[in-house]
Amino acid sequence: xxxxxxxxxxxxxxxxxxxxxxxxxxxxxxxxxxxxxxxxxxxxxxxxxxxxxxxxxxxxxxxxxxxxxxxxxxxxxxxxxxxxxxxxxxxxxxxxxxxxxxxxxxxxxxxxxxxxxxxxxxxxxxxxxxxxxxxxxxxxxxxxxxxxxxxxxxxxxxxxxxxxxxxxxxxxxxxxxxxxxxxxxxxxxxxxxxxxxxxxxxxxxxxxxxxxxxxxxxxxxxxxxxxxxxxxxxxxxxxxxxxxxxxxxxxxxxxxxxxxxxxxxxxxxxxxxxxxxxxxxxxxxxxxxxxxxxxxxxxxxxxxxxxxxxxxxxxxxxxxxxxxxxxxxxxxxxxxxxxxxxxxxxxxxxxxxxxxxxxxxxxxxxxxxxxxxxxxxxxxxxxxxxxxxxxxxxxxxxxxxxxxxxxxxxxxxxxxxxxxxxxxxxxxxxxxxxxxxxxxxxxxxxxxxxxxxxxxxxxxxxxxxxxxxxxxxxxxxxxxxxxxxxxxxxxxxxxxxxxxxxxxxxxxxxxxxxxxxxxxxxxxxxxxxxxxxxxxxxxxxxxxxxxxxxxxxxxxxxxxxxxxxxxxxxxxxxxxxxxxxxxxxxxxxxxxxxxxxxxxxxxxxxxxxxxxxxxxxxxxxxxxxxxxxxxxxxxxxxxxxxxxxxxxxxxxxxxxxxxxxxxxxxxxxxxxxxxxxxxxxxxxxxxxxxxxxxxxxxxxxxxxxxxxxx
Length: 710
Description:
Elements: H1 7-33, H2 38-57, H3 61-78, H4 86-107, H5 117-126, H6 135-150, H7 157-171, H8 176-190, H9 198-209, H10 220-226, H11 231-238, H12 246-257, H13 288-294, H14 306-312, H15 333-359, H16 363-386, E1 388-390, H17 392-395, H18 398-408, E2 413-418, E3 423-425, H19 426-447, H20 451-456, E4 463-472, E5 475-482, H21 489-498, H22 504-509, H23 512-516, H24 539-549, E6 553-559, E7 563-571, E8 576-584, E9 587-592, E10 596-603, E11 608-610, E12 613-618, E13 621-626, H25 629-632, E14 644-652, E15 655-661, E16 663-671, E17 685-690, E18 696-700, H26 702-709
Parallel strand pairs: 2-4, 9-18, 13-15
Antiparallel strand pairs: 1-3, 4-5, 5-7, 6-7, 8-9, 8-16, 10-14, 11-12, 12-13, 14-15, 17-18
Helix pairs in contact: 1-2, 1-4, 1-18, 2-3, 3-4, 3-5, 4-5, 8-9, 15-16, 18-19, 19-24
């Protein structure tokens, strides 16, 4: 391995190849649904080819070999010599898994583990034309084609010589002047060197396309020839320059090899191997090599001689405009985190100044604080934007997850995705990955029925899982929907009793919505058989815990026989949080605003006792009531309960409860600071912040608080 290569080059490879490999997984699954999409086939071929090229430069042989074999398969596919089917895709996706594994090893500077020889052999077998009688002979041309591709050309030295020979044979009688002009130029400039000159290349194009179409400024020999050309040719040459475009070069190859195929694809040879006798001196043996490699403008070799660069000039695209300056810059994420922390400190100072400004009578002070507020808000928004990533980073893996799981379970499932460009904080993108995988796998395994069952129920054999995202204010909403069997509340109630989560009476009182939320209980599963996909009752419990840690909310809607829908609501960022500041005694606390439903003033003498718990009735709804001061403030338990107090209704999922507080301070954006080592893991505490008056306030973790105290 060449990890001693320039670190900057390695990092560039990791960025570029990482993006390509992310796309490849999605493109391959898409190809299985649209096997005749030639643009998709070409894009996948280019993806493997680009990764192979970068790996070859870094001398990562194991990665090169695997990409090379996969690339050969797609070259056969794009030339329509084999059809895409599920078995072929299984092999290619397995190869992609090994490429991804090796890529991670490169990222971690570890020794590469090559793909198994058996896999490479299966890929090589698929790189043969379908039904070919002589597989060994069929594999060889693919290998011959892909080797020169590494050097940047699509045509080999021998083929280019055949091109020259064929043209000389066909045109020697018709265009003796052009041949002599080409050979004269060759004799004058090559002088024993093995390079092909500009004049020889021009003569070659003239013989193929006719004089004038690609002609540049005529040399003295060419002027003599051009005088004999037709007026139409003169008119054609008047408006053109000496550059050849990619399309024109492709046409040149098509004229030689026939349309649609690469030079080695086995098409009809329009350049017959004739005896060497008629060869003219204008087609020397070796000059073909540098021209063949440099004629494709996008892949020229850096270590060529000056003459070779001159020969490539006709194939280079025109560059009239000045080079465009780079508009992007790569920044370490740690630096972005540091900037976010500093903006957080600025927000705290802004809050403090706002509090002081409100107490001041000075008009100039009010204006200055107001301007600072505007600038701080804009700066906070701008820094958050730099940390934003499209949720496509998470969604991109699901086509492969659904495809593999559906084949494993013998189901037919189609994945539909919406809102992939929705942006959210990069930390959330990483944190949401695992919960979404659990939920999508759950939809395929539990939700979508087997094709035969769906058919009997009057549904299409293929089920649909829909994954969508949208922004709502300062939150992101994620939806995972399926058109499967839905959930039966009665089955869930029975399972809850069997698992000992509820007794029969309590289970009977559960609403349908509460029944659906049972699937998030630890150890709860409706699956009778434990498999490698589900059945242990841990996946959905992990989802609920993770979403709770992100200050998010989960809700489920389901209809028996129609399907289910899971909604996740998470904040846009984890660094700065809008809160409701409250006072318990003389201590400040912050309630995350996402949990707050409503606030009202209550006469505490009108409460009721239900099942031994204090409750209040608001608009015909019953809410359990908790005096959190008794839990969070020392000596708070011994104080008398006042007749009147403020009550904050907070929600966790579908459950809502009331918190009695002493005083409401108001809404405030706070920066979450982690608790010190001595306080880490304190029940009911999510972190701490500094309030506008400079005091420290603890941020309440509502689910944890109720789980521990309630």
